[in-house]
Write a structure and sequence with these properties.
The protein has one domain. The chain has 8 helices and 8 strands; from the N terminus they run αβααββαβαααβββαβ. The N and C termini lie far apart (about 45 Å).
């Protein structure tokens, strides 16, 4: 069998899918990893090779068209006023107005997850697809515009669970001293109670956060 070697871009993509965000659309992969010097056809060809060699899996799902990820719905730091949870919840729920469309997506394989020390592999449950793709949209923005911060991004699936019935934030920005600089949370369709609960958790632990 011919030996298959991961190129640097392959390793970056595999690391992203296992340790940063577990589901990406083909469009997000292309924009983030093949933005200028390679065509969509070249991207598809390399993804097919990675799938053939059991590093990732491809699928087509029904998902909401991508939301913009230019700026968070809300951001908070210790010392700031408490959020208006009703206003944030209304913004969260009103943005999912378009019907789902067929979307080509990429996930890590079990082999990749095991090698990277992550639990992120295979397709998540359907009710999580929109959430995960929006989180990936945020990560792509970070990777393209906030490169240094993107390098600090640690996804929840590469960390131990916080505890029974405790909601793990979607991602942390962790510096070299292992200090959490920021929490990243995709609010999905959060209601006011969920906004309050997430805020209280971060406030209790003095964690700055962004809600997307």
């Amino acid at each position: 069998m011919k030996r298959f070697t991961l190129a640097w871009r392959d390793f970056e993509l595999t690391t992203t899918l296992t340790r940063k965000t577990r589901l990406m659309s083909l469009q997000q992969v292309n924009a983030s990893f093949w933005p200028f010097h390679a065509s969509r056809r070249q991207c598809r060809r390399r993804l097919a090779q990675l799938e053939e060699n059991c590093w990732l899996k491809r699928a087509t799902i029904l998902a909401h068209p991508p939301l913009k990820a230019d700026q968070p719905l809300y951001q908070w730091a210790p010392g700031d006023d408490d959020p208006d949870s009703e206003e944030i919840a209304e913004a969260c729920q009103s943005r999912w107005a378009c019907p789902a469309i067929p979307t080509d997506v990429i996930v890590a394989s079990e082999k990749a997850a095991n090698l990277m020390g992550s639990t992120a592999c295979g397709l998540p449950r359907p009710e999580q697809w929109n959430h995960d793709l929006h989180l990936s949209q945020v990560f792509v923005m970070y990777r393209r515009r906030r490169t240094k911060l993107a390098q600090m991004w640690v996804g929840e699936h590469s960390l131990p669970k916080a505890g029974y019935r405790i909601k793990d934030p979607d991602a942390f920005l962790v510096d070299r001293k292992n200090k959490v600089r920021r929490v990243i949370e995709c609010a999905g369709k959060y209601d006011a109670k969920q906004v309050e609960s997430f805020h209280d958790h971060c406030a209790d632990h003095d964690l700055p956060y962004e809600l997307w």
